[in-house]
Amino acid sequence: MGTLTELFAPDRIAVIGATAREGSIGRAVTTNLIADYEGEIVPVNPKYDEVLGLSCVADISEADADMAVVVVPPQIALHAVEAAGEAGVQNVVVITAGFGETGGEGASREKQLREIADKYDLNVVGPNSLGIMSTTGGMNATFGPDNALPGGMSFMSQSGAFITAVLDWANDEGVGFKDVVSLGNKAVLDETDFVDHWGDDEETDVVIGYLEGISDGRAFIDAARKATQDTPIVLVKSGRTDAGAQAASSHTGTLAGSEQAYEVGLDQAGVLRAESVQELFDAAQMLANQPLPENKDVAIVTNAGGPGVMSTDAVGDSDLSMASFSQETLDEFSEKLPVEGNIYNPVDIVGDADIDRFTDALDIALADENVGMALVLSCPTAVLNYEELAEATVELREKHQKPVAACFMGGERVNASASILQDAGIPNYFDPSRAIGALDALAEYNDIQSREYDEPTRFDVDKEKAHKILSRVKERGDNRLGVEAMGLLDAYGIPTPQGEIIDDPEDAREVAASIDGPVVMKIVSPDILHKSDIGGVKVGVEDEDVEDAFEDLITRARNYQPDANLLGVQVQEMVDLDTGVETIVGMNRDPQFGPLMMFGLGGIFVEILEDTTFRVAPVAESEAREMTEEIKTAPMLRGARGQEPVDVDGVVETIQRLSQLVTDFPAIMEFDINPLVATPVGPDEDSGVKAVDIRLTVDPESL
Amino acid sequence: MGTLTELFAPDRIAVIGATAREGSIGRAVTTNLIADYEGEIVPVNPKYDEVLGLSCVADISEADADMAVVVVPPQIALHAVEAAGEAGVQNVVVITAGFGETGGEGASREKQLREIADKYDLNVVGPNSLGIMSTTGGMNATFGPDNALPGGMSFMSQSGAFITAVLDWANDEGVGFKDVVSLGNKAVLDETDFVDHWGDDEETDVVIGYLEGISDGRAFIDAARKATQDTPIVLVKSGRTDAGAQAASSHTGTLAGSEQAYEVGLDQAGVLRAESVQELFDAAQMLANQPLPENKDVAIVTNAGGPGVMSTDAVGDSDLSMASFSQETLDEFSEKLPVEGNIYNPVDIVGDADIDRFTDALDIALADENVGMALVLSCPTAVLNYEELAEATVELREKHQKPVAACFMGGERVNASASILQDAGIPNYFDPSRAIGALDALAEYNDIQSREYDEPTRFDVDKEKAHKILSRVKERGDNRLGVEAMGLLDAYGIPTPQGEIIDDPEDAREVAASIDGPVVMKIVSPDILHKSDIGGVKVGVEDEDVEDAFEDLITRARNYQPDANLLGVQVQEMVDLDTGVETIVGMNRDPQFGPLMMFGLGGIFVEILEDTTFRVAPVAESEAREMTEEIKTAPMLRGARGQEPVDVDGVVETIQRLSQLVTDFPAIMEFDINPLVATPVGPDEDSGVKAVDIRLTVDPESL
């Protein structure tokens, strides 16, 4: 698969299946191309010599094209793509439907399409796509009713209808695009490829998308992290809610990854996630057209107090803050504003403000270096001309090179000024909370751009030993492992309490004797999951009672399930919970994003309060540390209420080591370390963490 | 203060200060009245015989008016109002500014205005108001640039500029109003009066408002509960955030009640609270124009899969659910829809759907009794005419009498159809989440309407004993009480551990002996707040050690602060925390809403996790029970993780009794019962709650 530059800027496009038949897709595509495309168009159709005034060839091999759009019926579409590949056409847009989305025959057709693309190293968009557009070359290779206006947004969508709706709206509003791609079934090219491409595309200022699923989460994270160094990405990923996920799966057959995985995966990727169409375009237009702010502090300049308060609430709801003005600024405001006004932020220049007072106030506010951005907020008054205010706003944005949002409130009175603002890339909103939301997106992208992604640490571990332990599941009918897999933790350098699994009472006593203090004894059997319920756990057993306890545990297990596979009894050092905090580290493997690490405090904190945090593995040190910081109970790790802080560094390292384990062994489908007890660091700088119990599920096929 | 009916439907309006001078407020008001007002207008101004073609009188006494609008300068405005009262005019709108909002002289002027209103029993709007409107009589008694279109929304606003902006927008969109009130400084009439009035007004379908503060929270709750039996109320209360509250206070000088109090107070009042202008009007238009749904289940009918998924997410985000269709409905869909479609919800009728298929599908969906409401969702296609779809949508809404929201996506293609929809009270949105949000408001109001507000229980208590205990603060320089006020709890029937405050070691031993098991001993002194920090609390003291412990505690207190006011030592039964849960019940008195009760689990749950819940007192039993149910840790009261459930009924009763205490004694400014230990109900049906410690602050002036 080559670069996608030519896909969006081909010199010669062949339309395979072009026709002049009214109402046909072939006609629509050809007509759309004829409208503005600067290159050459070659209809391909053995039935015609000429289509819509263009001379037509019988076969793609005669077209000498660098891109082909395929609109023939599904039965012959594969032939068309293969012929294009044969003819050396590198870029193919398959508009034809009747592939994976129909299941059955269509699905196998889609598989073949992928094979053909591999064979000829083709860039294939679709199938089941509305087509693609690129406004730089005037290319509209879609069968939709509208062409896009030129602009800096590149837009991909898993819904073709949504593109149609967006373009109709955008053309009306004067909102423009660089490229538009209807992803269709994503048989070959998917969101990751386009993020990769647009990230390097000078003319793309912001990447936006509507996605119902991401094909390869980890690849997407890597591509997006790279792209967002220069180019913001804003996505609606639908299927956020349970109901939505179900609807998405019946719409595109997307195998639903968990929302949890998408949420953290997209965040780790540096993507801004919009929850609605409105949020998507509010953020995208701001990102496409405005400079980035130096800080998060907003100045609000308003001729109306009430809306000023509402806007301040919107700032309070966002990650932005109200700017504190310098003394110089306050002095200037005092000089220029009437006494009834407010020189503090929000700056109230009062209802009788004319254009001069408004311009002065905005100029003063934007000149203050404590101000990162501004909201121009106005209600209609008899003494203020909105068009003049719009022009002043545009000029001052240019002068100060700081982002400015507009909220000229009203209806018809606003229209002319809104056009002036929109032409300068300043969308006008009736609702101040939308304007503030859009500014917030700028600040959020600023944070993303300044992120430094550290590489996951590779610890020195005993991978072979771990492999041996995991392989045990192959030797038995069960894919679940319990305490008998504690050795995995040793192999990966994670501290565990002293202990062994013993199958003889005398040995048990010996082991207990070698451990300081009383011990914990547990039945070890893959067939007995809830050991506590049958009295299969004994706590605080003194050395002299170990043999009796052993016999008793075995009897209980046998009584409970005579044919249970009994691996023995675990004799384990007692971990003092009084000075420690119980934590849980877990992992679930997500179909799209792979291993998803979980961290939280044990017991009610996870079970009732659901105070947990997630990251897609491999997890770098900074990410593991964030996990210990962002749970609500984080203060309990750091010594709340007079307790000594626990060994947070030890927890952070444990999360990373476990992340390495699940990255090394894709066969581990899920696990829980519960509890991972965290205590203060010991007197000899001993690690303060101990993994007391483990449970995991393995896919023996992947070993 | 009489009824407000005449305020909105006067027969004869006097404009005190009417003039024809260009640019004057007097001219603007008179002109606005002349435009459409059906009654008579009498300019009052000694300088003229005629104003704008109307014959002018010199004095209000000659006007024979039932309403007066005052626009004269502040210095003579009070005279004008007094003269109006004298002349028997009951309703006065004071547009004149220069009252409370300017402080100083203005504030005393406002006080006088209130006195005059009292004296003549006047309905006074303002001062510092834009004026009022009522579209039924064509009355526009404001100086704003726009008149309102007729409609079912009655609108009050603490910002006049916001009214101007809203009307400009509303006129452009075709959105209408019944009454509009610019509240101004609310010297006499405030939000509660208008809620009261509009709640009984047949022509008002929904009350909406922009408020920065509520003058009397409890009165507002009572009025709103009554009004919302028939009429929904949707409010933006700004100053929600810390930044916003600060801005609100500098704007209208509103003494900020806590956001916590507003949040629960407005909820208890049955008010729908909008967080933005957009939310306000999205909800209000739906409530004003659509029938209420029978249930919360939405059917989505769409010609585009992607937007269908987005809409489903919006349903997932709301309190609504996706309707499950009956078998009959599914059968009908199967018959009418193509196989590529989806007969399950969201119903995908596919991109080639024409008006007939769309109409059929929507008709079938709305006929299903599992469906409470519908979203009509459409992307532009070549085979569908949006105007026809708009007409079908309106007809089917009428036919089925179920609420319908519209999301016809697009720009110019949508305009004509949007007007058809708007005329029928179905606003069209580009963004499905707004349409779903508006439907959600209907369902939420449904819930409010079916609320039953039970009266707070009046328990039989010893109010006199409580009064005596509280009065002690008067006898000393401090307004804080600690364990020495435990008697308050006895007086109000709240169980406390056995114990006494003792000032002699031998008596202490005697008391300890009368208590089963070891005791807790604590220093009692208003001057030593953090007793634990100086070792002033001893736990598990055996009888024989009581005398030594007593001496030791006294010594510690003396060493810590030689002149501390030492009330003695509390000897208290030890409460077993092992089988119980520590809870906290607290109260803060809010300047607007009065006593705000708080409940939560003690320790880290309040301090770190902030898992608390609030209600404005007096709290009825159902409200107290909700408090125990809505904290996240509620399962811990009800027996999580194998524990026995604690005495929740006892907790509920304690909250109510404490609510009665703070309602009976406005002098109690704040208190904490921490902990209120809740254990399982005892073997003899003993109460499972015990209030172990108390701290309160009293305002001696209010006793």
Automatic annotation (TrEMBL), chains A, B:
It holds the Pfam family CoA_binding_2. Its EC number is 6.2.1.13. It is an enzyme of class 6 (ligase). InterPro entries: Acyl-CoA_Synth/Transferase, ATP-grasp, ATP_grasp_subdomain_1, CoA-bd, Ligase_CoA_dom, NAD(P)-bd_dom_sf, Succ_CoA_lig_flav_dom, Succinyl-CoA_synth-like. It catalyses: acetate + ATP + CoA = acetyl-CoA + ADP + phosphate. One of its GO terms (molecular function) is metal ion binding. Keywords: ATP-binding, Ligase, Nucleotide-binding. Coiled coil: none annotated. Residues 486-522 form the ATP-grasp domain. The keyword Zinc-finger does not apply. PANTHER family: 3-HYDROXYPROPIONATE--COA LIGASE [ADP-FORMING] (PTHR43334:SF1), ACETATE--COA LIGASE [ADP-FORMING] (PTHR43334). This is acetate--CoA ligase (ADP-forming).
